[in-house]
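Minutes, project check-in
Item: structure for the 210-residue chain
Input as provided by the requester:
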Amino acid sequence: MNKVLDKLNWRYATKKFDRSKKISESNFKILLEAARLTASSYGLQPYHIFAISDEDIKLKLNKASFNQPQIIDASHIIVIANKATFDDNLVDDYIDNIINTRGVSKKDLEGFSQMMKSSLLNLPDSQKNGWTTNQAYIVLGNLITIAAEMNIDTCPMEGFNKMQYNEILGLNEKNLNAAVVLAVGYRSEDDTTQNYPKVRYSTEELITQL
């Protein structure tokens, strides 16, 4: 079987991590770089990523996660926080980044800038929040796959109190909202769920080719 498919069959939402096993600094840097390089709509990256290994912070987050053990036992916790809302600065900062990176002029990008602004800035705040949350989930999916390629286990988690996460991490004053959490580390031998057959719909049921 293709190596990528082998890794996707190997991975599962890890329920019990081996607390004694930590991800090396070099491997964790690769994961974070994969997060940075993840695609986003227009390339705007309307989110911020918090990489957490501090045990005191993990303990606080665990209480805000209904005491799920993954938060404590995983090597690291990655919190992907979306921008709660945004204005012209989201686009303008991105345009400046393109200018600095590619050496083009602002005039060259006027059409692209106006297209993004006309598509996004008139949305109500609720839709802006929904759109940025969707972008955060693209990062989540990419991280899960890259981690599997590296034989690193993950557990994506939505079961947490977002208001408490925002307070613990100081997100409200940064115009950020905790969208989703990814626990990363190495599975415990005692986690019996790793041996469960993977349950997915068949190709015929799930995919239509036209």
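Outcome recorded: The mean pLDDT is 98.
No further action items on this chain.
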